[in-house]
Amino acid sequence: MIRIPVALGVREPDFDGLAVQTRSVAEILLTTAASIAVPPEDVDTDLVEERADFPGTLGPMQPILKIHSSSNAPDRANVAVQHGGWWVLCR
């Protein structure tokens, strides 16, 4: 059996194990924001700004979670919420 100590966060150079550092809350929010598909009509009316791709720490990254919006109820979605006359859904 091999035992490897696992610790959260950055450790001293002499730490003999695996140190895991998670993303910050700000980085999680930026990554989530980069996954939102903004409706063109909302950009045209200046309701929202079109999103810029979030570069990530290892270069451009593909969204992990894709969020869409529609004026019609979705046929298939993992999560769907109706708000302000729009359906916001995750597939």
Question: Would you write up a description of this structure?
Answer:
- The protein has 91 residues and is of the alpha+beta class.
- The chain has one domain.
- It is 15% helix and 22% strand.
- The chain contains two helices and five strands.
- The strands form two sheets. A three-stranded antiparallel β-sheet has the order 3-5-4, with no helix packed on it. Strands 1-2 form a two-stranded parallel ribbon.
- Strand 4 and strand 5 form a beta hairpin.
- The longest helix has 9 residues.
- The radius of gyration is 19 Å and the shape is elongated.
- 0% of the residues are buried.
- Outline the low-pLDDT stretches: none
Largest sheet, spatial ordering of strands: 3-5-4
Class derived from helix and strand content = alpha+beta
Rg (C-alpha, Å): 19 Å
Characterize the overall form. Answer: elongated
